[in-house]
Amino acid sequence: MAYWTDVGSSTIKRLHLNTSKEELLMNGCIADSTPDGIALDIHSRLLFYTDTGKKVIGVTSLDISYHATLISKGLDQPRAIAADPGRGYIYWSDWGLQSSIKKARMDGSGQQVVVNTGIGHWPNGLTLDAYGQVLYWCDARADSINSVDLVLLRTTVVHRKKGSHFFGITHLGDDLFFSDWTKR
């Protein structure tokens, strides 16, 4: 399956890769809804999402039988989200007045700031190296890709290129893959 958000139609969808059948998982046509980031926990069969318009973080089961708002306080413009099922956490970026990266337990409790300094106001994509306990994010305003060691809470600029607009990021093994809107 491939999962994605469509901010234009305020929906979360998936595609069965073997049949090319598209399914609507969540229709956010409620006023001000803008589902943005998603993260899967394939073991628990849960999809976590951010909704920038409604300023919430929610969860839905992949069979759509369960849906809940996990976090509705302390959010301004939640964007990207990553899940760490092994340790029981979700991480998200927030573009708000005080841009930050935060974490909470997968039930929404125990909200904590992970990084709130050195962020250029547009922290986009997140990807988690759960084994190395490193969280990476794109910062479109700072033209950089950054990381934070989740044990030492030490941040590092991994890559910077002036004029870039880094947006999405993921990793496989030791490699990072990212998108850049200016380079298309």
UniProtKB/TrEMBL annotation:
LDL-receptor class B repeat positions: 88-132
Keyword annotations: Disulfide bond, EGF-like domain, Glycoprotein, Repeat, Signal
Any single Pfam family the record assigns to this protein: Ldl_recept_b
GO cellular component terms, semicolon-separated: plasma membrane
Statement: the UniProt record of this protein carries the keyword Signal: yes
SMART domains with a match to the protein in the record: LY
Record Gene3D superfamilies: TolB, C-terminal domain
Keyword Transmembrane helix appears in the UniProt entry: no
GO MF term list: Wnt receptor activity; Wnt-protein binding
InterPro entries: 6-blade_b-propeller_TolB-like, Cueball_EGF_LRP_Nidogen, LDLR_classB_rpt
GO biological-process terms attached to the record: canonical Wnt signaling pathway
Protein name: DUF5050 domain-containing protein
Organism: Capitella teleta (Polychaete worm)
